[in-house]
Amino acid sequence: MTALTLSTAAAPGLRADAIVIGVAKGTATRSAGLVVAPGAEAVDKAYDGRLSDLLETLGATGAEGELTKLPSPTGFKAPLVVAVGLGAQPEKDTAHTAEALRRAAGVAARALAGTKKAAFALPLADADAVEAVAEGVLLGAYSFDTYKENASGNGARAKNGRAPLAEGVLLGGKSRDAAHKAALTRATAVCEELNRARDLVNTPPNDLTPAHFAAIAQAAGKEHGIKVQVLDEKALAKGGYGGILGVGGGSEAPPRLVKLSYTHGKAKQHLAFVGKGITYDSGGISLKPAGHNETMKCDMSGAAAVFAAVVAAARLGLEANVTGWLALAENMPSGSAVRPGDVLRMYSGKTVEVLNTDAEGRLVLADALWAASAEKPDAIVDVATLTGAMVLALGNRTFGVMANDDAFRTAIQETAEQVGEPAWPMPLPEHLRKGMDSPTADIANMGERAGGGLVAGLFLREFVGEGITWAHLDIAGPAFNEQGPFGYTPKGGTGSAVRTLVKLAERAADGDLG
Questions:
Q1: Is 288 part of the annotated catalytic residue set?
Q2: Within 13 Å of residue 507, how many CA atoms lie on the same side as its CB?
Q3: What is the rounded CA–CA span in Å between residue 297 and residue 294?
């Protein structure tokens, strides 16, 4: 990952391959035309105060995500200036938002692939801005090239021979300032784990079976002082985990339930995360059609997010107890696969009639939710690429939030928005529960087609222990980006929900889960 440092050095004398500056769109209330953002004063001065005019001549407008390159002025050791758009100029006495800085830094970092060192002269008004720019650089520079044969000169595998940006310097960041140092430390820990989650999501399913995923979790636990317990197929059968066993029964790669426990002696609250980890989803006997299964390696994105969040909490030393449950299985058709019409006895003791084997995520989550409930945490949050219905409702960049407590649902949505992850509250309409009534079992795994994402949430609620605050994040839309990269978000696995979960863990450390 890109190495980041803080520096108060002057831009002209800094040895780097590029200097990144911010530009914004002027507003009617402040100044018309393109505006050079704070942090770039030395660069603008070297152009005799005409930098904005020069950039406008080159077609720059300051729009978000826009990037313009030009030769550095005389006297600069860096040969290139990269101007990146921040969007609209903020109102007087206000600063650019953290998300605007994050996105701009991400665009620039991605554009500088193949570069050894870049200096970022973006607005750093405070420690929050330092953290936002650091996150943008670390997430924007991400590249998944493990399976590419061509490698760059420094040995790092890279697409088209262009390795990710090797080093970034945040100009204006104070290395002796405790708040700035803490911001950089937090950004590094969270982004390293988020990028690890992206790697997991992008890994082909032949190399990431449930057992492989469990082994990765065990190695991380050993490194970061996290207790890891793995239930294999024999332990799952002995324990009565019918949902996980049923889904994984059709695959030659048997299922696993992984529990990661991070504890702190001064913990005020206990937060449990539960992640759907279908390492490949063919749909099972209810086979997905061509065109709908090519990206189903991403169906373990929820488990990847939970894993990353628990490790990040440990690395940050949060004063909270954080438990992660990874419900791992591969959903395949075979003679031993669960069939439509089968009835599974779940870990909770309830029976479920399986009407559609492609509604498998809720089955593995149900067992993990009941297991998490047994420990009576202060709150449980499950994360899953659960329904196409949620994608139809909210699109590809926003995840849905459902909960059995309105205040907790609101707290999660606000937390997500705070860290730059679009989220939207969704209801759990009681009238939809009747559609899951089964003449054979306690409940069916399918209900009404309309409102399918809400039906799935109602199903999961059935497996949450009484009196426990619970929320469900359906990240089916933003978990895997099939379009082109944007901001600090790459194509492929995005690491959706990781930053929201980490911030929730920080709230638990403050005794403030809402």
A1: yes
A2: 20
A3: 8
Output the CA torsion sign for 92, 95, 99, 100: positive
pLDDT at 291: 87
What's CA 266's distance to the chain center, in Å? 27
Residue 212 and residue 316 in contact, taking contact as beta carbons nearer than 8 Å: no
Is residue 360 within 8 A of residue 368, CB to CB? The reply is: no
The full 3-state SS of 405-424, as one line of letters, equals CHHHHHHHHHHHHHHCCCEE
Task: Read off the pLDDT of residues 257-266 as tens digits, 9 standing for 90 and up.
Answer: 999 999 999 9
Instruction: Answer whether 210's CB lies under 8 Å from 514's CB.
Output: no
Q: Of the residues 103, 117, 362, 409, which is catalytic? A: 362
Place of tokens 């309830």: 350
- The answer for residues whose C-beta is within 8 angstroms of residue 65's C-beta and 6 or more apart is 84, 85, 103, 104, 107, 486, 487
Alpha-helix residue ranges (DSSP H) falling in 375-470: 388-394, 406-419, 452-461
Distance CA 481, CA 476 (A): 10
Measured distance CA(402)–CA(408) in Å, rounded: 9
Q: Which residues, 6+ apart, have CB-to-CB distance to 261 below 8 Å?
A: 226, 227, 228, 229, 321, 323
Is the distance from CB of 362 to CB of 348 less than 8 angstroms? Answer: no
Q: Which of 77, 159, 174, 288 is catalytic?
A: 288
Q: What residue type is assigned to position 259 of the chain?
A: K
Cβ-count burial 401-425 (b if 16+ within 10 Å, e if not): bbbbeeebbebbbebbeebbbbbee
* Residue 362 among the catalytic residues: yes
Structure tokens, 106:
């991400």
Using CA atoms, how far apart are residues 137 and 102, in angstroms rounded to an integer?
8
Burial call 36-55: b when 16+ CB within 10 Å, e when fewer: bbbbbebbbebbeeebbebb
User: Which of 104, 116, 195 lies closest to 152 in space, CA to CA?
Assistant: 116
The tens digit of pLDDT for each residue in 199-233 reads: 999 999 999 999 999 999 999 999 999 999 999 99
